[in-house]
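Lab notebook, bench 4. Continuing the backlog of folding jobs that were queued last week. Each job is logged with the same field layout so the records can be merged later without manual cleanup. Today's entry covers UDP-glucuronosyltransferase 2A3, a 488-residue chain. Filled in by technician R.K.

JOB TYPE: sequence-to-structure
TARGET: UDP-glucuronosyltransferase 2A3
LENGTH: 488
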Amino acid sequence: MLLHCNVAEQLARVGHEVTVIGIIDNVYPNATYKYIHLQLPDGGILDDNALRSVINTRHSLVKSLIVTTGEYMRMANETMWQPTMREFLRENRANSFDLLLFGFVMNEFQLGLAAHFQCPIVVLWVVRPVLQVNRFVGNPLEMAYVPNLSSHLQQPFNFLQRVNNYVTAWMEFALMAYLDYRTQQLYDYNFPPDRYPPFEDVRQNVSLIFTNHHFSQGPIRPNVPNLIEIGGIQIKEKPDPLPADIAKILDEAKEGAIYFSLGSNIQGSHLTEEKVKIMFNVISKLPYKVLWKWGPNDRPGQSENIIYRDWLPQDDILAHPNIKLFITHGGMGSVVEAQYHGVPMVGIPLFGDQPSNMANVQRSGYGLAVDYITLSEESLNNAIQEVLTNPKYTNTVQEFSRLYRDRPMTPRQTVVYWVEYVLRHKGAKHMQSPAVHMNRWQLMSLDVIGFLWAIFAGVVLVCAIVFRLLCGEKKDKKEVKVEKTKQK
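JOB STATUS: finished
OUTPUT FIELD FOLLOWS
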């Protein structure tokens, strides 16, 4: 929600009337936009049992994706039938809104809302583009040198890495086929075909994508004009003042302090007692003050160096000069904020894009990742001590910070410009790639290759038949000639 609410807030501040609908509490209580909170039975988070299973069991990538995407689809469907949402849709119909800003998290069927309001769509995506997002705008598929999110590869590729990337891409295609089937079912259920256009027509109505990414993070790849990078939009250009107690702790931490957060979705109850104890035992022995984001219940233990809070202003804390290390789950928002402020990381990735994000952090030299499933006091302590004592991690991430900040426009200025561009040009259809209207076989020219091979095979076959006929005719003539010679 940080990405989506930041986009909404920037638009509201320049005079647009913006309504945000979400299933969690508004992340900005004093926001300029209007916020509608949809109360779901489970509180608007992933099912606890499903989340525990994904985090604490080493599933295959495909199984993890199926479990998490299934949960996201379930929540999205519940959202459509929530009473406040039903009333909102009854009161607002065609031309009620000029634009749909669509937060995409495996809820593709909800693009039908744009058909309901009869307006163009701008998609918001929280990490670098993946296959399903690229499809919205026809972004090219470059399997030979652009790593898939699930392959964890780094450019450039050798031959075996290209094979790996190719295979994982086709695995993602197979998963997309399953998701397309479920998406079509949910679309037909929520947007009946007698009142709404076909889903494929709705999907082709996407005008533009904002992705929370910047090319300096890699991988380097070509993008179509209507895929716009706004990486770091949630980061304030000037940090807000910290709460007095937190400011005092950090200001007095002359030797430095550590910030520890596993994100907004993970609760202590999602982790095993063994893993929580390992984290506490390591962190409680560090000679630094540690700000640990943890819920008010079931805190791991008491230690003089640990300060627990159930909420902390992460961006403002990471901006403090005395923060020496960020222990993180590796969510893209957290990684970006650490990179922007030049803070090295130790990551404990749990699910989703987090392992890929932390693999990139480690390869780039911004920190180290430790495996949650095999986590031990030794592995966690070794990673923390290495990053704290070896200056190369701080130097590398601070050098990257200078690259990341160097842009012609800030992400917030970029958002305002391109949203207003889409509005000015009534959906900006002139930016849409022809690839949006082509299927995968056409995009990979498999039909052309098949056609040319058919022609080649046909020519070879004809030549073979002609050659055989000619050879057969010569043989017949030779046999006739031999027969006549014998008769003489």
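OBSERVATION: The longest strand covers residues 206-211.
SIGNED: R.K.
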